[in-house]
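Hey, resending since the last one bounced:
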Amino acid sequence: MRATAALPGSYGGRRPYTGPTMSRELIERRLVEVNRRLRRAREELNVVDEQLRALSEVAEDARIRALVSETPLAGRDHHDAQRHADAMARSRAAVVASIEQLERAQDELLERLVTDSG
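The structure tokens again:
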């Protein structure tokens, strides 16, 4: 059995995967996936915002107690509560950055979809 080399530009009777139909389908699939991830990230942002509000309130209450009581324990409680609120703020920033990245990816895919069809 002898192997034969395919001629350049020949696909053995098959259509290449880089054709416009496949490209459009691939872009649409990616758009659906990015949209799904974007929706989940926005839901996560809502949860993180709610948690951040709660932790910030706790930190503020602990700060006031620390100012009024002037005890090392109250100061430590405030420090711990503030540390948790700060960590949640960093988590929020990461989720916001992820949303921004997904929105950019979505915009790029939409532009490619419009450009390819035009």
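Residues 20-69 form the longest helix (50 residues).

Sorry for the duplicate.
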